[in-house]
Amino acid sequence: DSINSSLLSSNISMMDLLFDNRRFRVMPGNPDIKQLATDLIHDHKLEEPFFVCDIGEIIKKHVDWIHYMPRVRPFYAVKCNDSPLVLETLAGLGTGFDCASKVEMRKVLELGLSPTDIIYANPAKPRSHIVAAAELGVQTVTFDSKVELLKLKNYLPGARLVVRIRCEAERAQCPLGMKFGVNVEDAMELLDFAKSMDLDVVGVSFHVGSGCMDPPVFLRAIASARLLFDYAARELGYNLNLLDIGGGFPGNTGTSIAEIASVVNNALESFFPQGCGVEIIAEPGRYYVAAAFTLVTQIHSIREVKGDDTTRYMYYINDGIYGSFNCIMYDHAIVRPEVIGIRNADALDLFECSIWGPTCDGLDQVCSSEMLPKLDIGEWLVFGDMGAYTLVAGGTFNGFPLPKVHTVSSAATWNTLSDSMKTQAFVVDDVPVFPNSGVGYNRDAVGWGCVEGAVIGGVVS
Ligand code: PLP
Predict the structure, then answer these.
(1) Which residue of 50, 330, 379, 450 has the smallest Cβ count within 10 Å?
(2) What pLDDT score was predicted for residue 424?
(3) Where do you find CATH 3.20.20.10 in the chain?
(4) 327 CA to centre of ligand 1 in angstroms
């Protein structure tokens, strides 16, 4: 308590709690990310790229989720961004987790959560990962083939099985249907097969595609799931009780969560009304983290390209498509730079430029054509909405390190979090943030604490 009150009084913003991935800075007001980045660069003479993560953004997303889809419990997709503070925050808020591998399952369990807070939602699983799921006690798994059922029968015979059907958005940033999911008729056949092997099928899942820009697809998918629920009960005597509506929810662009929620809620009311005994879950990834992360990069080289009557510039920055900007290749992301720092009034004319990553590969281009002021070596460019599918898939090709994450929180958010530790439930904008207080939230294991005078999100014993 005394550490808390000292943090929350006097000059908190000057407290340097940042130079450790697990610590964060508490700001008196809402964090101004660009100003904070400028301060960090100045105070610590930074030269490497870095992320600023605003934990408050993640909490805000959770508050919105509960507001818009109170019936749907989110199981955050770890693959999207597995930064420790992200996982700890979401665990503290009471979400479950969608894991794709044994490493992700272990990571989540190390937070102190229960195996029932995990869905192992990779329909094609290596044998050793199924064995690990069995050892770890993770039971709920998805499947979409007979081969997978045979493996599960051998290595996880008590699994709670969730069949993944295919129902694709007409427009999505990353379609997934070509790889996973079966149509409803084939799913029926899989259920027959599961029944013949005495396996326990408990539900239906789908993923409409990541970055879905076709909200009505959720109605089609939920209606298809209903067909399977009915078939399973009528023909096979299964009593399915889990509907997993997958991911596809927007980060900061594309469609809005309100629009998707309206389709989802109406479809649930039609096909899985309140009181029908079916638990509804989802596997949001980018929704939670996209906006929370801002990438800050430095220009280390410049080439001037003179045309007949214009000059273009090529800026080389210290992160590229082999690092955080792998999202350009893998996530089909379009990234936009903003300049930070104080500029002379006469340096505000705009020039066409391209932006390149630090490696020797010609493919390593971040932006092909932007209009920016004429910049100098040592200036910094920031890129917003960089939390989803960036750090997780980046490498260190040519020896360039991945950016560190510096985390920040407003004092109000921090207050709310510390309150939550005491009361286990808190209210933001009239929305209870732990609606299922106690369900899936292991209060004894995960919480928020203070260590050695620094505020960290972490495990409190
Ligand atoms: N669930 C599964 C099985 C996925 O493959 C993915 C993304 O690839 C997600 C959830 C997360 O999707 P999104 O980030 O669109 O919410």
Answers:
(1) 330
(2) 41
(3) 56-290
(4) 14
Of 276, 327, 353, 360, the active-site residue reads: 360
- With cut-offs at 50, 70 and 90, classify the pLDDT of residue 65: very high
* Atom number in ligand 1 closest to CA 121: 3
Nearest CA among 331, 322, 328, 318 for reference residue 382: 318
- Rounded CA gap, 201 and 148, in Å? 13
Residue 175 CB–ligand 1 contact under 6 Å: no
pLDDT band of residue 24 (cuts 50, 70, 90) is low
Question: Radius of gyration (Cα) for the chain, nearest Å?
Answer: 24
| Whole-angstrom distance, CA of residue 443 vs CA of residue 461 | 10
The answer to whether residue 458 scores a pLDDT higher than 60 is: no
pLDDT confidence of residue 89: 83
Top-tier CATH class for 29-54+295-402:
mainly beta
- DSSP code per residue over 344-369: -GGG--EEEEEEE-SSS-TT-EEEEE
* The CATH number of domain 56-290 is 3.40.50.1980: no
Answer yes or no: is pLDDT of 450 > 60. Answer: no
